[in-house]
Write a structure and sequence with these properties.
Elements (H helix, E strand, L loop, with lengths): L2 E9 L2 E8 L12 E4 H11 L6 E10 H25 L4 H18 L5 H8 L4 E9 L2 H20 L10 H18 L13 H5 L3
Parallel strand pairs: 1-3
Antiparallel strand pairs: 1-2, 4-5
Length: 208
Amino acid sequence: MYSATWGSDVAVDGKTVWFEPSSDESNPGPMAGEVFDFAQYAERRVASSPPSAQLIRVRLLNMPVQVFARFRVRYAELRRELRLLAISHGQEYPVAIELSDLFVQVEQERRQSRGVVRIDEAIAAGRDHVDLEYLVPSSAPHTMSRMLEMLQKADEFCRDQKLLTLASSPQQIALQEWYLGEFARQASGQEPTPWPGSLAVEDDVASW
């Protein structure tokens, strides 16, 4: 009743309700909000797009499972906040619109991939490291290269305190550079490079 607009963002890790406050009770009756279900939207994109004619193999060796789990939490928070920014201030922050579209593209390609369930199983089992082998659409290396570039731009927003989400820790930066970079490296014919594990887990925990 005291909102100029409102909505909810539904994801596998929960639902976020957002609203833009109004100075007075301008709409005393029920007001429809914008409900965005990320999983359903990505599934519709998969259903409406032709399957990839070619799947390529990507091997992720010595994947730091629990570090990746924390990276995934921050990724979801960033995705949610940038989508809301794209809705309310998209003209001022075009990077928010571009990243929001890219998040959906990544999810669409993930749903067309094979083998990705193993990282979920490793997280649930409390594993520290695991070797993974994915079969991903041929478009994935380009998408992951774009994602790495856009996440670096998003970090600039975080450091300038334009977002509520915290900037990446040194370990998270190292992880995303390695993880996202492996797709492009291996697509170009290079052998997989194992996660070096040069930064301690405590470095990442201390940043939260």
